[in-house]
Specification:
alpha+beta, nine-stranded mixed β-sheet, 13 helices
């Protein structure tokens, strides 16, 4: 007989041995093996500023909480419930302590934290998450992190007409890792700081150990001749969108009608064609689309989308792979589904530090999947949390042995145990 306990049971929060999210031990264990806390203690020096002591432990608190979906400082308190702290391997700081810590950051301190992101990328790729000699595709984009109220320093209105910040980021296609990220004021133009950003990105990728061919994709907001020249000198290929300026539209209009090739993988309620021409010494690839049928009167004319590239592959391959630049939005969605749903401080550089830590927490989840569950489809952060992190457990001790007892018949128990075994096999940092 099934008894309804929802109305008759007594509820009390007094069970000490309970671990609310026992699966957080997986990214915490990976962070230990990569030596991230030591990296932060080594590179981040806040001096005598209030809240500047023990930066590694405080950042690790935020990393573990962000892996569980924390999007504000108060959410970090979940790590202090029951015996959750016992499975983390690091001390847990209070939310008020974390707020003081973030407010201690200046521009230079955020750059120190950015070095931690770069060095952790190198260590994770050396542990098995990297592309090695395989091809690496990097997508550069920006997004608006919306905020509310007038007390957010640096927040402003950009092209979306929403108040917020406007970070720029580079992600790895396929895995969704954040390779580089930089917080910017909300009123910043899309291209602001993009050249410097790419100049830092190129050697970071090389130092991390990617030795194969490299492709950078971006939309028209990052169209910059100096940027493309920098990529070419570094041996990268690129495909970067262009705006419909007069000389671009004139070059497209000069394409002969018989040069347009139909795209067969386009929906039946429309048609698309592709063609190419030269813009000076650069290859200009164009896709044009229009609607068919009853909806055709909405857009009766061709709409054109063009990009410049230095690739020499077949037109169909180059155009199709440029369209896949849209996968960067999946990484942005994941970031906004976790820590970057909000920016917790009124100070700009505190939020800039939060942004870098959020990218590192996002990467920890991706690396957990890549290293601990190789060959499987890389899941979104929400799916990974639901299957492997948000597992209730009871911590028991008997005969000098500690056991973490998890629910019977957990659907993804095999994946969890396989991931735990692989992460435990990683060597500790030197």
């Amino acid at each position: 007989m099934v008894h309804d306990l929802s109305d008759r049971s007594v509820v009390c929060f007094d069970e000490e041995p309970i671990v609310a999210n026992a699966g957080v031990m997986l990214p915490a264990l990976l962070a230990q093996r990569l030596g991230i806390e030591a990296l932060i203690d080594t590179h981040v020096d806040l001096g005598e500023r209030q809240g500047g002591a023990n930066p590694g432990g405080k950042a690790m608190t935020m990393l573990s909480a962000m892996a569980l979906g924390a999007d504000c400082l108060e959410d970090c308190d979940v790590l202090r419930s029951g015996q959750t702290a016992a499975v983390l391997g690091h001390r847990v700081a209070a939310p008020s302590t974390l707020g003081t810590f973030l407010r201690a950051f200046t521009f230079g301190h955020v750059r120190q934290l950015d070095r931690v992101l770069a060095d952790s990328l190198k260590r994770a790729w050396a542990a098995g998450a990297g592309p090695g000699e395989q091809r690496l595709i990097v997508d550069v984009d920006s997004f608006v992190g919306e905020v509310h109220g007038y007390d957010k320093q640096g927040a402003g209105f950009g092209y979306t007409h929403k108040r917020g910040y406007h970070p720029i980021l580079a992600t790895r296609a396929g895995s969704g890792e954040v390779l580089h990220i930089r917080a910017r004021k909300g009123s910043a133009n899309t291209a602001r700081g993009a050249l410097r950003f790419v100049e830092e990105l190129i050697p970071r990728i090389d130092r991390a150990g990617a030795s194969g061919p490299k492709l950078l994709r971006a939309d028209s907001g990052f169209w910059n001749n100096k940027l493309m020249a920098k990529l070419e000198r570094a041996g990268w290929t690129y495909s970067i969108g262009v705006r419909q300026q007069p000389h671009i539209t004139a070059a497209i209009a000069a394409i002969a009608e018989h040069d347009w090739q139909p795209l067969t993988d386009y929906p039946e309620d429309g048609e698309a064609q592709i063609a190419q021409t030269m813009l000076g010494s650069q290859r200009l690839v164009v896709r044009r689309t229009r609607l068919l049928g009853a909806q055709a009167e909405l857009w009766p004319d061709w709409r054109q989308f063009a990009f410049l590239t230095n690739r020499t592959d077949a037109l169909e391959i180059v155009e199709a792979e440029h369209r896949q630049h849209a996968v960067v939005e999946l990484a942005i969605r994941d970031l906004k589904d976790q820590a970057l749903a909000h920016f917790p401080s009124g100070r700009f550089y505190a939020n800039a530090a939060w942004t870098v830590i959020a990218a590192l927490a996002h990467n920890l989840l991706r690396w957990t999947h890549l290293i601990a569950l190789p060959g499987q489809t890389v899941r979104t952060a929400r799916t990974l949390r639901r299957r492997l992190l948000a597992i209730p457990a009871r911590l028991t001790r008997s005969g000098r042995r500690t056991t973490l007892r998890m629910p019977a018949r957990w659907p993804w128990a095999d994946d969890f145990l396989a991931a735990l075994t692989r992460l435990r096999a990683l060597p500790p940092p030197a």
